[in-house]
Amino acid sequence: MPGEERVRLLRVSHGNTVWTLGKLEPEYYDGIVTNWKGVTIAAPGADCIPLLFADPVQKVCGVAHAGWKGTLAGVVMTTVSVMMTEFGCSARDILVVMGPCVGPCCFTLHQETAGEFMKIDTSCVKGVNTPRPSIDLRCATRVLLECGGILSENISDDCTSSKCGEVTLCTTCHPDMFFSYNRDGSNFGCQIGFIAARDSPITVNIRPRPHIPHVLAGDNRLINNQQDNHKRVRSRILEELQDNDSI
Description:
The protein has a 6-stranded mixed beta sheet with strand order 2-3-6-5-7-10, with helices on both faces. A 4-stranded mixed beta sheet has the order 1-4-11-12, with no helix packed on it. The chain has a two-stranded antiparallel ribbon with strand order 8-9. Helix content is 24%, strand content 21%. By secondary structure, it is an alpha/beta fold. The chain has one domain (7-242): CNF1/YfiH-like putative cysteine hydrolases (4-Layer Sandwich).
């Protein structure tokens, strides 16, 4: 790892290319996987989902950027597959954290594209017979992960919601908390999710606008309105890392 940058941010193209650190760097990539210690890898999101992956057994971590194009292109399971093929990870050991994204309340697609999400699972699409059905990116991502062998209890996620007090708020609905391309157009910013493998317990963070913490805080505490599944998976990440000499 000599001479390498200590922070690597995805070069997003809304595709399914995943870069393993140490190999030839592609021009663009929507996922990074590594077992290098002391290097932080990061995924942006401005309505798309920043995803974090950790295998405490093989001491491997990864990030991915999944919008609707990347989801249909398979970037989520490509990231998992690279962890398995490059580092010998087992899907059952991989822990996944899903960051904030646009909810079905604010995100629609044309009928033809919505039909591709219907193929993933019918519950991912609402208003099927309307000109522009609503798409639930989080639902689609969870289904793909579970179908790919990731245990349900190893996925930290709650259904994206709008204005109803649930944990994972829609990025478009909450301008006071999140940046949103869908809402702000070309004048948009990004949330950043990042993770690092190191000798002490793993650092996992999903960071929106600097003045308002949300989802996973840098001091490894969850904000008060996180629900039980977030707490359960977060605790398991830390416990398993400590049991396996942490990465």
